[in-house]
Amino acid sequence: MNSTPETFPVAKSEDEWRRELTPEEYQVLRQAGTERPYTGEYCDTHTAGVYRCRACGDELFTSQEKFDSHCGWPSFWAPLAEGKVRYLRDSALGMERIEVRCANCNSHLGHVFEGEGYSTPTDQRYCINSVSLKLEPKQDEAP
Ligand SMILES: [Zn+2]
Q1: Phi/psi at 127 (nearest 5 deg)?
Q2: Which residues lie below 8 Å from residue 82, measured CB to CB, with a gap of 6+?
């Protein structure tokens, strides 16, 4: 057993998070909520860019790994880099799932599933709440 409290580069009290985030963001990011499917602003987004953590601003995913999973949430087949996210076993709702959190601030992002048969390089689906992300569109490149 590890008795040392976990620490993260960005550590704020729940009061601070509650002040800085909207109620919807707080519920998903800090209370592991899930936005309703097909309602998130990035569900069908194909804009090129980088997806940052809505809570701390760290870069987590890019549009290059985003794919159309038709599951109702933005889906990626890999994070921007290993180490950007952390994984936790989640047995809530009677299902064994792998929760995905931001490694920088420990905010909830979504879940990762694998072996579903998607034709992506990893056959993994990072099923991420739009409200946990902030898309930073890529600057137009000079012609
Ligand atoms: Zn974060």
Answers
A1: -95, 100
A2: none
Q: How far apart, in whole angstroms, are the C-alpha atoms of residue 86 and residue 76?
A: 15
Q: Indicate if 127 belongs to the active site.
A: yes
- pLDDT per position as a tens digit, 24-49: 999 999 999 999 999 999 999 999 99
Q: What residue has token string 């009061």?
A: 15
Superfamily (CATH) of domain 43-137: Peptide methionine sulfoxide reductase. (2.170.150.20)
Predicted model pTM? 0.92
CA 95 – CA 100 distance, rounded (Å) = 15
| Gap from CA of 25 to ligand 1 centroid (Å) | 12
Q: Are strands 85-90 and 59-62 parallel, antiparallel or unpaired?
A: unpaired
Residues in contact with 100: Cβ distance below 8 Å, sequence separation at least 6, in sequence order: 85, 86, 87, 108, 109, 110, 111, 112, 126, 128
53, 56, 102, 127: the active-site residue: 127
